[in-house]
Every structure is written in structure tokens, then in C-alpha cells.
Amino acid sequence: MYRDIPQGPESEEIRRITREFEKEFQLKMGFHMAKHLRCQSDVAFHVYDMNPEAMSRFQAACSTKTKSNIGLASSPADLASKSSVIVTVLPESAHVKDVYTGSNGILEGIRKNTLCIDSSTIDTSVSVDVSKQVIAAEARAVDAPISGGIMGAQAGTLTFMVGSQNDNDFEQAKLHLSKMGKNVVRCGDLGAGQAAKICNNLLLAISMIGTAEAMNLGIRLGLDPTVLASIINTSSGRCWSSDTANPVPDVIATAPSSKGYSGGFKARLMLKDLGLVANAAKDTKSPLLLGSIAENIYRHIAGNQTMADQDFGVVYQWLARGS
Amino acid sequence: MYRDIPQGPESEEIRRITREFEKEFQLKMGFHMAKHLRCQSDVAFHVYDMNPEAMSRFQAACSTKTKSNIGLASSPADLASKSSVIVTVLPESAHVKDVYTGSNGILEGIRKNTLCIDSSTIDTSVSVDVSKQVIAAEARAVDAPISGGIMGAQAGTLTFMVGSQNDNDFEQAKLHLSKMGKNVVRCGDLGAGQAAKICNNLLLAISMIGTAEAMNLGIRLGLDPTVLASIINTSSGRCWSSDTANPVPDVIATAPSSKGYSGGFKARLMLKDLGLVANAAKDTKSPLLLGSIAENIYRHIAGNQTMADQDFGVVYQWLARGS
Amino acid sequence: MYRDIPQGPESEEIRRITREFEKEFQLKMGFHMAKHLRCQSDVAFHVYDMNPEAMSRFQAACSTKTKSNIGLASSPADLASKSSVIVTVLPESAHVKDVYTGSNGILEGIRKNTLCIDSSTIDTSVSVDVSKQVIAAEARAVDAPISGGIMGAQAGTLTFMVGSQNDNDFEQAKLHLSKMGKNVVRCGDLGAGQAAKICNNLLLAISMIGTAEAMNLGIRLGLDPTVLASIINTSSGRCWSSDTANPVPDVIATAPSSKGYSGGFKARLMLKDLGLVANAAKDTKSPLLLGSIAENIYRHIAGNQTMADQDFGVVYQWLARGS
Amino acid sequence: MYRDIPQGPESEEIRRITREFEKEFQLKMGFHMAKHLRCQSDVAFHVYDMNPEAMSRFQAACSTKTKSNIGLASSPADLASKSSVIVTVLPESAHVKDVYTGSNGILEGIRKNTLCIDSSTIDTSVSVDVSKQVIAAEARAVDAPISGGIMGAQAGTLTFMVGSQNDNDFEQAKLHLSKMGKNVVRCGDLGAGQAAKICNNLLLAISMIGTAEAMNLGIRLGLDPTVLASIINTSSGRCWSSDTANPVPDVIATAPSSKGYSGGFKARLMLKDLGLVANAAKDTKSPLLLGSIAENIYRHIAGNQTMADQDFGVVYQWLARGS
């Protein structure tokens, strides 16, 4: 049974909506995010997932003490009718459109002033469009895509890049987002969170491939990879892809490359983000020479089933061993 | 008058050889490096430059107190005959070959055990070849290319990437290099300094263009460039090209982009280094997809006289304003 | 006054719909195509353009003898209600969707068995979707995008690449298309015309840039461009971009490059087609390394107002003169 | 025993020099070329190969009637001392330099007025340099690289691209080259043959990859490859790589792709030529965006032992099956 609770900025009623799309998001990303929210909340908490099993699993995973408060919604509309704050994490633009504006979607049940936080990474134009429909329904919307991956979700150290109409909506959203992450940054107006996220990931993809090319070249020239990385990391070539997630195995013990390219940011998810970049570049007529090659390298890599599911640093292996 | 001085690892007799190639190196890079060496040395000090004016200018710039010790050599061979430590900084592989192995070159005058430190950035294969000829003449050689630019040369904060046959040669070279720079790192065997330098600069070029693409896209999507840079700089896209030398004017006050793309690393020098990268990639059969596009973008940019002499961050302008 | 005429596969009643989008299509492409259709037809002929002036201009341009037969429709729906064959040429996916499925669109007035021929170059997925809606309305649809440009339209020498459900629809469409073009080819099922068109234009863009790179390199190596082109044109490098539309001025007298890059295929239209290619590549997960660079080169070029409206062979100038 | 023969432009004394480098050249390319020369010549004929077995094999293969005339030289210098026309085909710049200017090289034995025809594909700058040394020795030199592959060599249908100081040298060379090939074209001054050859092969590599990308995209969009190719081949995308050597198996029966990518132009030889292109582009500051990606795609492909030895159309497989 779902219990509605009193409104107000102090209330921490949060509802989680997801739709099954890929295991790591359904079972891990959303799961961990919802747990962090739940653990730090005393108010009623409703979840929705198109897969009932995912919901029961979440319910089961919560402690005895809080479990009684968790409600399982029957649809996005149902959940919206019971919530004053809603967090969504969905795989693609089409899912966000559907969950918000489709049949039995959030807009059918939404209450006045409800704050909708969409943490999906989707097309900026779709994000802005959906947010405007939420606002037209007298509710509030922010886009808050995530950086930090599953490990960040588990540890509660995610970064949220937020686009909002005003500071007040941002501050409201921050109250909740800060339970799941360490950094919550306002990037600008509606859609600015999406824009910042894809710009970062564009540079990330380029840096990673660049690091892979530089490390591969250095190794073939006879350099010790650990020595080379340490030089780059104190020089003008330094970047996150080199000093934190170096794609050459055993250069950085905690990097996915040192764990068989597992536990990181999957190549096919990077490909997805680079697709969003390509759409934004086309809309804004922005030339992307390195960015477009990066997208197509990951398209090539994702054509291989094994590499598609490995950390995107696997581009080093792709380069190093030849086709 | 040239005075020869006693040998030994403690002696700090240093001779500077350059050949005129480009003003910033002859007048600035080499000039500042030699000044730092001179200021911290009590022993005899000889310089050589194919342009006599450059030598007199250096002599004039040194303090009255030390001036009397500065000798002007008549050729590389002449200088070599008077030195136990030699530092060379030259523009291209061909110059290094000529200064060492050509007529009246260093090898014609070199003394047993003299330590040759070549700080030019040249082809790894040429560097190794020349070093081996020096060693065959019973002297010693290290390659020690520089990172840090003219500002680093002036401030004495350069980084030297050193390749040497053994730790002893490296330690010897470090005594002198540490007067001109802050970091002196051994990268490996002969040629390893060159290899590390070009690998770093390959990644640097890619990161810079990547930063330019990401910033340009973000700005066209409506983001404030300073906000976008601050987000990237605390996320996985962070890199030196974004947090220290951001190519968008007025994002980072000290970056060349905020000073009309002046005072940095010239686009045509980056192009030169990417040419060395291309040679090394061909020799080692290393694929460079982003790296080869980067080289050709700088070739396109360097076709424009004005941009050729601007900081390599000018790639942002090239992207942003259309062709 | 619009007169309806008897149905039947032999009747050659043709209606032309366009919407104003760009002068060269409204005034030239569509205009010439419609004239060829009109001149070889005795039956009633209706036209529609959202710009009434464009319709009067067409009416005025037709001969006294046939003018009386030309009807001006008041909307796509109106035109559809009077036609058994409809030809559309529109600029973008959104226009085709709107003209067929929007308010007062063709589907609101369409008659049973009417043959809809869409000669727009648009997204394959949108084309297939609209065709299926036409078929669901018990009419018939083929996609028949055009190759050959304005000069081909004027001369009646266009190539039509046709996608159709069956051979019968194709043969019907061919009766009409062969009045406007020389080659009418069935490429496969619905959407196959679009697919073939963009694959051809992908290769065309790559060949043109490749020709520009090869000619520019040869000229800088001291070759006479006419001699180089003649060698390439009898060797394995030969292609349409080299032997027919060589981008170096005065190599081929009839090429747009020899007429100030005028009268050809505009750079920004090539950019538009490469955008369709990018969408199709994303949908089908097809890597496009050269294709993606080609798209972004044209995006860079189209950022320059002058070059955007020049023949796409202007990429030679972009390469040759530096940025 | 070697017999010297009378000089004169009418004499057809020809000597073949090769050095062992790769089977297909030593055993096939040079072998077939020499056979064509030999068969149409009555005069004395000397061959040299660093591998004596290769020379005996050639001698054995010649008919009883002519065999007695074939002389086996003991060195390039020896051969030069007995010849008035010399044809060389060698793998790399370094070999040409060595065979002409090295110890026991041609220049040590060369006679006044001897015509040296170098059919190797090497760096333009090296080719010009060696030719000038030949001319300084009062002999004559032309560069005449080959297009057409082993099948062309066997059939005697090669194309020769010739650079010469004057028309007379070209006409002289043509007398001999036309026995081995169908087209003999003067491209310009010394080095122009090399320049034309690499410009053609640059465009060839780009066209082939472009064809592979377009065919792969079309196939994934549901098109029949034979239909797609036939459309492209009558449209603006047509090129040799599409209409003669289509990289999709079974589209063109005689193409290497239809024979397991055998019998064509090996991927690693294309990579070699693209390396020459890269050198020339660097020397002349010519930007090559597609060309540089093409080079690196073939570097990636050549990293795979099997594909390295297949026809360069194998890039289609590389794209189609994912990494």
C-alpha cells in the first residue's frame, strides 16, 4: 500500500523510476542510487521499474527497519500521484519521453510543484523539451546527468551536472542529489546539465584514445609504461585517462585495465554518449574532427561483443594488438 | 681567450652550442638556458652559435663579474676541444647530425669522457645514432629534450626527459640540468628522453584539440565557458589543456589564449613535434588515428602565417569561426 | 479551376507539390522537373507550393497551349483529392512528414490507388515510415531520390534511385520519372532508393576530398594539374570527382571549379546528405572513419558563408590555401 | 661470361637489377618484367639479383633459343659496366640509394650515356637525388614507377609513370618500357613519375576505404551489394575501387575480393606507399585529413599477419566484421 506524505522542501520523499534496459543500470546504477536515497530518508519512498522483479529485489535489499516504508508503484503515473520529488534514470531519449509524456506516464499523475530530477544522459533537445512539458504542468524539472559510474554510485561519490530554470530548483535538487553524490554543480539553464555531461565525455573519449595512442607508441619505442605514464602525469600531457584510468594494464593498480577492463565505463556506453555528442554537434553546426573519429573507433570496437562490454580503455588493446 | 680547465665530475665547465634557426630558440630558449647555467657556475664557460652576434649578445648580457670567463668558440670542434661537458639545443635532426658529425663538428674535437647533453627534440633514431657515435669516440652522451617552453626556460623551471646508458651518466647530467630546470627524469636507455617527449606531446596535441572541440560544442549549446571548464576540470575530462592552458580566451587568465595566443607553444612547433611522432609511428608500425588527424589539423593551421606563430591553442579559433 | 480526371495506369496526370525552402530547389530543381513532366503530358496537371508566387511563376512559364490545363492546388490535401499520381520534392525529413501526415496533408485527401513518388532525399527510416502510412491508406508509395543536380534537372538527364514494394509500382513510377531523367533504377524495397542515394553520396564526398588531397599534394610536388589528372583518370585512382568534376580550376572546363565553384552541388547540401549518412550509420552501427571526417570537413567549410554556397569541390581551395 | 655490346639508342640491350626483398617482387614482378624485355630483344641481356638462385631461375625460365644470351652479373657495378640501358626495381628508398651509390653500385661501373630507368616506388626526394648523381656521372636517368600489379606484369599491361629531364630521354625509355606495359606516360621533370604514382595511390587508398564504408553501410541498410554497386557505378560515386576492384566478395567476379582477397595489391604494400605519401606531404606542408586516416587504417590492418598479405580491399572485412 502506498502512503502519501506531506509536501514541503524539507520532506525527503523520493521515488525511483527506472525501466529495464541494461543490467548494469537496472541492477547496479539505479539500485545503488536508490539505496543511498533510501538510507538517508525517513519519509515514504516509492519505486517503479517496468520489471517487477527489480522492484522486489530492491525491497528485499533494504533493511528490515526501513523496508515497511517502501512502496512499489504500478506505473509512472501512479508513482507521480504519490510523490513530491521524483528521480528518473533511463537509458535513452525515447525512454525519457515515454516515461514522462507517454500513456500512464508521469505527466498523467503529476502533482503541482513536484520536483522532477532526470539523471538520464540523453539528447539535450529532448531533455529541454520534456522539462518544459513538466513545467507547463505547473511542476518543476531539472536535468542532472551523472558522472562517476557504478563504482561512484555504490560509494555515493557521483558527480551531478545540473541544469535548472533557477537557483531555487537547483538548491532543492541538491538536497537529494547530495545523498547520492559528492559534487552537485549547477551548469546553467534547463539542458545545461546534459550539455556539460556530453562535452566532458567527448573530451574524455578523446583523451582516452589519445592516451592509448601515446602509451602504445612509447611502449613500441621501448619505454617502460609505468615510467612513461609517470612522466606524462607530471607534464603537459597529463589527464584523467592517463593518471587515474590509464588504459595499459598494471600501470595503475585501481584502473579497470588492471582488472581485465572490468568495472569501468563500458565501451558501448561511451559509444552511446558519443552519439548524443554527434546529434548536438549537428544541431549546433560544430565541427568535431577528433570527436567523430572517436565515435567511429568505438563503433568499430562495439562491433566486437567482448570489447563492447569492457571498459572503454580497451581501445588500448584494439590499437596494440592490431585489428 | 679560451682557457681549458681540469676534468672531473665536480667541474662545472659548460659550453653552449646553438645554431641560428629561429629567434625564439636562439634568442630566448638557448639564451635563458645558458644564463642559468652560467650564473651558477664558477668555471670556464664557452659558447658557440653560427651567428657571432648571438654570441656577443650573450656575452654582453652576462654580469661584469662573470663575463671575463665566457669564451666564444670558433666552431663546434673548437668548443669540444675545450670542454668536459657540452649542452646542445638545435632545431632539427639534420642540425644535430651536422653539429656532431659534420665537418668541424663536435666529434672532431671531442675529449675522452666528455659528457654530451643534447636537449634538442629530434627523431629518436637519429638521437640514438649520434649518441652511439659519441660513445664510440670514448665520450658519453645523453638525450635530454625539454618540456616547458620559453617561460620555463626564463624561470628555470623546465622539465628534462633524459635517456642515458646508465645511472651514472644520468646523475652527471642532472647536476647541470637541474640548474636550468625543476624536474630531471630518467626515462630509460639512450633515446628514451626523445621517445617520452614526443609521446607526451602527441597526447598534448590531442588533448588540446579535444578541449577545443568540447569547449566549442559547449559554448554553442549555450554553456558559459568558465562554468564548463570548471566542471570538466573536476571530472573525467580534466587535462592540462583544459585546466592550465584552456584554449578559450578569458577562461584561464594566465593561458596564452587570454593573451592573444602569444607566449605559448607555437602551432608550427607543435606541427614539427607531430612530424617526429609520425616518423616514430611509421618506424614502430603504431597506428595513430587521432594523432594523424592532429598532425594534419596543425598542418592546415600552419598554412596560415598568423596562426602558425600563435600558441597551438589557436586551434579553438580555427574550429570556432569556421574555415 | 481544378478538374479531376479519370484514373488508370495509362493516364499521366501528375501533380507537383513543393514547399519553399531554398531557391535552387523551389525555382530550379522542382521547376525544371515539373516542366519536363508537363511538356510530355496531355492530362490535367496540378501544382502546389506553399509560396503562391512560385506556382504562378510556373504557370506563366508553361506554353499558352498547355497553360489552361495547369491547376493550382490550395493545399497538399486539395491536390491529393484531384490526383492519381503525386510527385513530391522537399528539403528535409520534417517537411516530408508534414506534407504527407500533417494537417491538410496528402493523407487527408488521398484517393485509393494513387501513386505517391517522393523524390526528396531524407532519412531512410522516415521515408519508410511515411510510405507505410500511404500504403495503409490503400494508396501506393515509392521513394525516388534524385542524382544529377540542377543541370540534370534542366536537361532532363537525372538519375532516379527507386525503392518500391513491388515491380508493378516501380514500373508505374518509371513511366513518369523517365520524362524527367535518363536512368530510373529499382534499388530494392521501400527505402532502398534513399539508402542507395546516401551510400553514393558518402562515396562521392570521400572521393571528392580524396581528389582534392591528391591534386593538392601533386601540385605542391611540382606536377602540372592537367597532366596529373589525366594520369589518375587512366589509372586506379580514377573517379567521377577526378574525371568529371575535378576540383582544381581549369583542369576540366565544364566542372564547377572552372566556373568559380558555381553551378554544382553546394557544400551545405553535401553536408546535409552526410548528416543523413551519419544517422543511418548510427542506426545500423556501421563504422565510418573517412565518412565522419568528410562530414566534419564540410561542417567546417559550411561555417564560411561563401564556401557554404559553392560547389562541394571547394574543399580543394580549403586545403590548398590553408585555413 | 658477359659480353659487352655496341652502344646506341637503337640497341635494346637491357640489364635487370633487383635485390631480394619480397617474394612477389623478386619472383613475380621483376621476373615477369624481365621476361617481357628478354622476349622482345635480340641483344645481350644481363641480370643481377643479390640472390644467385633468383638469377638461375630466370635463366632457366628463358627459352633455349635466347638463354645463351643471358648474362649473370656479379654486382650492380659489373652489370653497369656491360650495359647501355639499365632497369631497376627495388623495394625501398634505401635499396635504390645503395644499388646506385653504394659500394660496388651502378655508379662505380656506369658508362657514358647509359640510360638508367628506375621503376621502384620510392621517396620523390631520394629518386631525384639519385637521378642527379647518375646525370653528374654523364649518364642519363628517368624515374618510371609502375602501376598495375603482378597481373599487369605477367600480362605485359603495366602503366609506367615517367619523370625525365627531357623528351628525348623519355622517348628512349618508352622504347623499352612499352615492351613491359601498355601505357607509358611522361609526368614531367625528374621525380614526376614518383609524384604521380603516390598521388594516384593516395586517391586509390581513399577511394577503396570509401567504397568499403559505403558498401558496408548499404548492406546493413538492406541493399543488395550487386545492385548498390551497379547504381554507384553509373552515378557520381563511381570509381575504380567500386567498378573494377569492388571490395565486397562476389560483386565483381574478377576482383581480388571474390578470390579471398588474393592476387591483388597487398595491404602492406599500400601501407608502404602511404608512408611515401606522408613523407611527401610533410615536405610540402600539404594537409591530408583522409589520407592520414587511410594510412593509419592500413597500419592497423597490417598489424594482423593474415590481412597484411591480402589485397587492400580487405578493409571491407575489417569494417564489416568489427574489430
UniProtKB/TrEMBL annotation, chains A, B, C, D:
Keywords: Branched-chain amino acid catabolism, NAD, Oxidoreductase. SUPFAM superfamilies: 6-phosphogluconate dehydrogenase C-terminal domain-like (SSF48179), NAD(P)-binding Rossmann-fold domains (SSF51735). It catalyses: 3-hydroxy-2-methylpropanoate + NAD(+) = 2-methyl-3-oxopropanoate + NADH + H(+). It comes from Coemansia guatemalensis. GO terms for molecular function: 3-hydroxyisobutyrate dehydrogenase activity; NAD binding; NADP binding. The lineage of its organism: Eukaryota, Fungi, Fungi incertae sedis, Zoopagomycota, Kickxellomycotina. Residues 28-188 form the 6-phosphogluconate dehydrogenase NADP-binding domain. This is 3-hydroxyisobutyrate dehydrogenase. The active site is at K197. It comes from the Eukaryota. One of its GO terms (cellular component) is mitochondrion. GO terms for biological process: L-valine catabolic process. Its EC number is 1.1.1.31. Pfam families: NAD_binding_11, NAD_binding_2. Belongs to the HIBADH-related family. 3-hydroxyisobutyrate dehydrogenase subfamily. Residues 191-318 form the 3-hydroxyisobutyrate dehydrogenase-like NAD-binding domain. Pathway: Amino-acid degradation; L-valine degradation.
